[in-house]
Amino acid sequence: MTLQPTPAPTAADAALPRGPRPLPLWVSVVLAFAAGAGLLVSFPPYGLWWLAPVSVALLTAAAHRRRLRAGLGVGMIAGLVLFVPLLDWTRIAAGWLPWMLLSSAQAGYLALLGMATAWLSPLADRVRAAWPLLIGLLWVGQEALRDRAPFGGFPWGRLAFAQDDAPALRLAVLGGAPLVTFAVAAAGGALAALAWRSWRPRTWPPAAGFAVVLAALVAGPAFVPTAAPAGQIRTVAVVQGNVPRLGLDFNAQRAAVLLNHVHATQRLAEEVRLGRKPRPELVIWPENSSDIDPLRNQDAAQQIAAAADAIGVPILVGAVLRGDVPGEIRNAGILWMPVTGPDVDQAYVKRHPVPFAEYMPLRPIARVVSDKVDLVQNMVAGTTPGVVRTPATTVGDVICFEVAYDGIVRDTVTGGAQILAVQTNNATFNEAEARQQLAMVRLRAVEHGREALMASTVGVSAFVGTDGRVYSATGFNVDAVILHDMHVGGPRTLATRLGQWPELAAVALVLLALAGAAPLRRRRRTGGDTVAEGKTEVR
Questions:
Q1: 447 noted as active-site residue
Q2: Could you tell me if 279 and 388 lie in one domain?
């Protein structure tokens, strides 16, 4: 922080907007820390969703009218405070160094966001009513980039995924996760503008306008109707077999994991025979419920067949399939029929394996980072959407982290899915990760107007209605079997029909805004980057 005398005003200064001065640098740093902490606790398992727009406002204020490198710095601070603890579950599986590298990389996107906020400051000061719009667009643009690059992106920590209990969740039916993020960030922009303007009496009318916008963005979505459940009902069971113990070495006990799911299904069959539970029309097992390839291993096939024959209905089995090339595997959901066995025509292979976890880019370099690199095999990506047609219903199958990617989930619905199923394996993570994933399932159910379920090896497993409400949620690290009458099908929502167009429109507008701010920034540099004659500005 340096102190520089203000030059004498020029004629160009008169045309410049007299916006607020940047806050002292130490205040901006404190606000950035607070913004990151507030964003963190807005996500599950804390669930203080209302802190998300507050945190956006804090980061906006911290970066406003700062120089670009300072905006970059305060954004990076907020990002580290958010992502280091939010992604702590990756440390369990991969170790501390990959955890810190991933967290730092994700924080870098918030650093770019802080710099972009600083860049847009002259435009925000000139068109003050545009604050909510500009901040909303910036956050959507930041997430659009982070969700795609590098190596296909990593969408964890999107603002939309912190809104599972908020009114804003209902906006997903209109524009998906990007619209939810926009509303939350725009509310933060309105709050920041309200704070900047309200302390001076002559600015009360505009401040009142920002207050109205803030209230509309936070509370207004409660009046948005979600998709009505379809008329047809199918009884679906989710089997959460649990694993012998948590940790990476659970795969060494894969036979025990398979038997856990077989025995739990057989116990359900016995409960059905005794009339204690209704017979399901479909059973869903989680990802990796058979880490032994049942298409190549006869013992595994016999165990799964015994479970399917006992319950008498199809089972969607999460299986690891070995390839013909040594070291190659596929992460799949396979429909296993009673009597006839696997229906290989009704199978889904995961389309978006996780880089550095399910396949290893830059393997020689990665060995320097982690000694677990050689535990990662080469998972081959599937090429077709997860549309699995069963006698009961058509399932939109997505596997684990794929639920975070807009297009992968949407493809199943446009392909005919009547319900959504998220098969996941949380055994190498923790309960916080599982509950964050369930929040994504809730958003997807609202977004596409399809009832959904999450089937986990260890929890949390649950069913979700088209309004985002959760039913029959299990605990974590327990074995459980849950049944629910699911409404299947229904018309496509506006969000499903629009697809990625709302996000693309937001990105285009953000680029226009960034370009439009360039002349104003040049005028401030050449005409005097100050706000008051005869003062000394804190840079």
A1: no
A2: yes
